[in-house]
Structures are given as C-alpha cells and as structure tokens.
Amino acid sequence: MITFKKGNLRVPKWNRRVFMVAGGTTAYRKFFPEYKLEELVMMAFKQMLEDNNLKMDPLEVKGLINYAAYGEFADHFQDQLLCEAKIHDYLGLDPLFNVGIKTGGATGGTTILNAAMAVASGYADVALAAGWERMDEVDTRTGNFYISTAACKDFETRLGRVYSSYYAPMANRFAWAFNVSETTRAKIAVKNRLYACSSPYAQQPGKHTVEEVLASPMSAYPLRFLECCAMSVGSACALLCDEKTAYQLSDNPCEVFICGGTHTLRVADRRPMDIPLLPNEIPGMYKELVKEGSRWPGFESFLAARFAAYLTYRMAGIHDPLEELDLVELHDAFTISDLQTYGDIGLRPYGQEQDYIESGDAYYGGKCPSNLSGGLLGTMHAVGATGIFQAVECLWQLQQKYDQFHGDSKIWKKWGKTKPRDWKSLQIPKKSKQALWVSHAGVGSHVTVCIIKKS
Amino acid sequence: MAKKTQQTKFIGQVTKIRQTEPQTVIEWPRALTHVHTYGMLSPFFQGLKEGKLKATFCPNKKCPEDRLWIPPRAHCPDCHTEMKWKTLRNPVIGKVYAFTEVVYAGTGIELSTPYWQIDVQLPGLATVPKSYLLYGKPYIGMKVMAEFRTEKPSNTVLDYYWVPVE
Ligand SMILES: [Zn+2]
Fold it and tell me: DSSP of A214-276, one letter per residue?
C-alpha cells in the first residue's frame, strides 16, 4: 500500500491504560551449554518476579497472571515446534492461555504489543511477555543461512545467504545519498560495544576504536564483522498490567504506548510514496531531500519504522522526540540499521541522521542517549528476546534501577563473570520521564515503536 | 507367554556426544529436502533458461499501478487482478541502484565468494530487483546488461545476472 485512506492512519487507542512494572533477563552468550532453553526462561522469569521490588510475594504476583505472550523468531533454531507450550508448562502457568508471536527481529516488540492488547482489552489484568532464542544448535554459517530465509526464498535468499548482504546495499546507497562517512557507522559500533562493558548480561562487550572496527573482517561490503550483531542465546521477560494492579505491585510503574508498522519483505518491492510526517515535521520540508533517481523510502529509510513512530508519537502525545525522550533503545543489528532509524523516528530530519551521533546527542550524558544497554551489537540479539530485553532496560532506567541490575557483583557472578574494576554506571538522571525502544524485523518488514512513561 | 525374542530393537544411529562439561551436549543430525513450487511464477524461471527476462503487469486500466514487476507477482497488490506477463526486449539494460560485495556468506551459498550483489533499476519497473554482477566492479548509476544461464541452468533466480555495458 502506498496511498493511505482515512482508516489506515487511525491512531490506536487502548480501552484502558496499560503499565509495565517488572522485567527479567538472562545473560547472553553465543554458546550456552550450561542450561536448556526452558531453564533460561525460568531464570529470567524468576528475576522478574523476585528482584523487581514488587510489593507482593513472588508467587502471589505469579498468581495474578491471566495470559502469556511468547516471542520466538524461528522454529529452525530451537528445532522444537510449539516451544511455547513447553516453556509455559515449565514456568508452571498452565492452564492459562498462551500465544506464540513471530515477527522476525520485531518479535520481542510484537510480544509486548500483544500482551499490552490483552490488558487494554480487558482479557487480562496481568500479562506476561516473554521471549527467547537458542541460536547455538547450529554453526554460525548455518545460522546465517537460517536467518537469510527471512529474505524472499525465491528471489533473494540465494543471493547472499547472510543477512548482512541485504543491509550492505542499503549502507552503500545511504552513504551515497547523504554523504555519510564510514567513520560515523564505526562510531555506533564503538559506542554500543563500550556500553556493553557495564552490563553483566552482555555477550560482546569491548573497548574498540573506530580504526579497529574498520579493520575488522568484511562480511558484506561495507559492513565489517564488528558492525554486525552475533548469534545469541538467552531470554527476557516483562510484566504488563492494568492501572489498579500496577499500583498494587509497584510504586513506580511505567505506562505503555506501542504501535507497529510493516513493509515489503523484499527491499526490491518498495514503491516510492509520500513521507508520513511526524508531529514536529512540516509539509514540504523534504522536497529537496532526494537526489535524482532516488525515492522515499528507497533503500535509505524504513516505512515500517516511520509508520510505527507516526502512530506511537500521537498515541503517547510526543511532539518533539529528541526534546521529550530521555533514552532510546534502537535495533542496531547492523550499524547501518541503527543509523537509518534516526530519521525514521525523528531524532533528526531525514538526510541528517549522522548528526545524531556526531553531535554527541546519542551518547551517555547527551541529549537523548541511545542503547545504553549495549544494544544488539554489544549485548545480545537472541532474536525473540531482543525487543523485550530492550523494554526491560528502558523500564529499569526510568525506575532508577540501572545500578541495581547492572552493578551488583552477585549478578556478574551468577553469569560466571567478574564485575570490572572500572565499572561505570550508565543510569540516566532522576528527572528522566520517557523512554522509547524500536523492535525491527527483516529489512524493515515489521517494526514496533514503544514508549514508556514514568507515572 | 510373551516371547523375549520379539523385543523392540534400537535401529537408530548412536547419538554422538559433543561434550560433557559443563553439561552434556549431543549432536542431532538433520538432512532434509523441501519440495517447493514456483506456482504461477513458473514462467519467470522458465523464461530465464530461454534467455528471457519476464515481468508481470496489472491489466486493470483503472488500477493506479501501471508499471512492471520483477520480482513478478501473480496478483496485483493494489486491485487484486491477475497479472499478465511481458517479456522485456533484449538487450535488457539497467542501472545499478545499490550494491554490495558478499565476502562472508552462509551455508549452501551457490556463488563463489567474494562476488558483487547488485540491485538494478530498470525503466518501466515499479521495483528494483536484486541479482549479481558477473564481473567488474559496480558503482551507483553504472550501466549493466542482463545475461542468462541458458546452458546448464540452475533452475533458480541465479539463472540471470548482469555484465557491465562498456
Ligand atoms: Zn492492479
């Protein structure tokens, strides 16, 4: 669809307010032989119930749950159909209804959206959103092939069999259209991998330099290994509830606003269209944007992300995202996907995306820091868990619990690590009110944009 | 009386143990073939083997989309009308819209690495199909011509590719 009719642009409205009160996560690793999948999900579930300062006994909180939404990217990886049933039983939640959610890399975000819809509609007062991925049953190249079957199997998969090769042409086109240097992309990898050094959950923390990123082996030109996320194993979960229960459970629940958008699986099929404008954008401002032969969204931008932001900002009453948001968690599966998204969600106008990094706004202490969790590049991309993990990181930040969940040496020890001597807190300031995260699939096939607000 | 000689036998392969520390990890071999149809798009793949690049178009005169589709579709996404085929006249000349050099590819890759994957803009198309450049180094705007694997075809989308137009 490239022309909108009136109904298409309706802004979603909950029937009642939805809140998030608690979250849990495992650590993430490339290979995780210590635990079975259901054991990992249980560990995240326990952290959510036991360690979030909820005002009720953990098993009493569990007794409030009415519904569960489970995110898993690919049955291929788990090699277990109906994995949801196995996990649900293992968590001891039968006979409550549960549903499996699958929207590629956006699975985590969609799982939260589904759980939120259950609460908003009244189906549930309390809903569990949990996600996972176990990508270590096959070798890395086979994992890459599996993921590439999330490109079109008839017209694209055989042309790369690795997802970096579907993002790399966008990176080249983006650099050409907006005159972006490779250094800007490399800085994103440096930033997010550095922030991962503060996280006991992180898979790939590292104090890299721009030079190291650019000298790392090439995956698909221009994307180097250090610009790509890795295969991951782990799980995350979040607890959503109605307003009354939220305050029974927590002194600092956060209100949830979330919407999604979609676009073609094949970049090839993106037809040019008008740009849906965000609340702070002015008609006509993008007239001069595209060079001859270019088009919007072209290979540079994501309609799905723009559409999701268009709806969520209106749903949550956001006018100027850069001014009003205190933290964002973006889907940095590749440095380029991170960069492309800055324009889609209005952290910068289209064509000026790189300035979000170059200005310092994106850094800890900056105007609107991004991916303090370490993101996908530094911390994790256990796909079904990713959007939930980032939601939980946003929640803990707004609840002023960054140190509680990242700085405790016991958590480091639990995951077989030692808290670094030079550990640095990345807690955002107390006055922070709103955080956003993006959950993103394919080359932009599904995107959710979620905002949580401290109430 | 039950006969002990008629007991159930283990007829599988012994499962290999990969490691026992910190926990037991076994190997679970998988080998499988899917039977996959090209459906109503079969003429496209047949065409490649005959040296023809075929596109589809919506024959509905009232439809807002009058351009060609490659990858082809059997039904118009805008008005749902069944599409019709049009063979592009050789030589098919296009321009590189985007590109990458695939260096590290996943299991089963059928092209020798590294190779140049290219997205090609063609006049009259609504789409920008992905393919590869047989030789040379691409840049945005580079003119390229379609060629076909008519001998020993692979029966896949890899049966057409592009070469530079000097
Ligand atoms: Zn039509």
Answer: HHSPEEETTEEGGGB----EEEEEEEEEEHHHHHHH-SS-EEEEEEEEE--SSGGG----PPP
Distance between CA atoms of A262 and A252, rounded to whole angstroms? 33
Distance from C-alpha of B129 to C-alpha of A83, rounded to nearest angstrom? 36
| A99 min Cα distance to partner chain B (Å) | 27
pLDDT digits (tens, 9 = 90+) for A163-183: 999 999 999 999 999 999 999
C-beta neighbour count of B141 within 10 angstroms = 12
Amino acid at A114: N
Tokens of A395: 């929640």
Tokens linked to A30: 């490339």
Mean pLDDT for chain B overall: 96
Helix/strand/coil for A280: coil
Q: Is the ipTM of this complex over 0.90?
A: yes
Q: What is the pLDDT of residue A292?
A: 63
Tokens 């939601």, residue?
A391
Report CB contact under 8 Å: A159, B101. no
pLDDT at position B2 is 81
Site of tokens 């939640």: A93
Distance CA A421, CA A427 (A): 18
N- to C-terminal Cα separation, chain A: 37
User: CA of B73: which chain A residue's CA is closest?
Assistant: A269
d(CA A451, CA A328): 9
Here the tokens at position A225 are 């290994």
- How far is residue A183's CA from residue A214's CA, in Å, rounded to a whole number? 8
Determine the pLDDT at residue A294. Answer: 72
- Residue among A141, A173, A269 whose CB faces B140 most closely: A173
What is the per-residue pLDDT across B60-110, written as a single tens digit (0 to 9) for each?
A: 999 999 999 999 999 999 999 999 999 999 999 999 999 999 999 999 999
- Report whether the peptide linkage leading into residue B29 is cis, meaning its omega lies within 30 degrees of zero: no
Asked if B130 and A268 come within 8 Å (Cβ–Cβ), the reply is yes
Q: Give the C-alpha distances (Å, rounded to integers) separating A368 from A65, A227, A325.
A: 34, 22, 6
Of B22, B104, B110, the CB nearest to A219: B104
Rounded distance between C-alpha atoms, residue B105 and residue A164, angstroms: 9
Check if the beta carbon of residue A28 is closer than 8 Å to that of residue A117: no
Q: Please say if the pLDDT value at position B111 is more than 80.
A: yes
The pLDDT assigned to A291 comes to 66
Separation between Cα atoms, residue B23 and residue A183, nearest integer Å: 43
Between CA A392 and CA B165 the distance in angstroms is 53
Q: How many CB atoms lie within 10 A of CB A237?
A: 34
pLDDT tens profile A385-434? 999 999 999 999 999 999 999 999 999 999 999 999 999 999 999 999 99
CB contact under 8 A, A269 and B28: no
Confidence of residue A306 (pLDDT cuts 50, 70, 90): very high
Specify the amino acid at residue A180: V
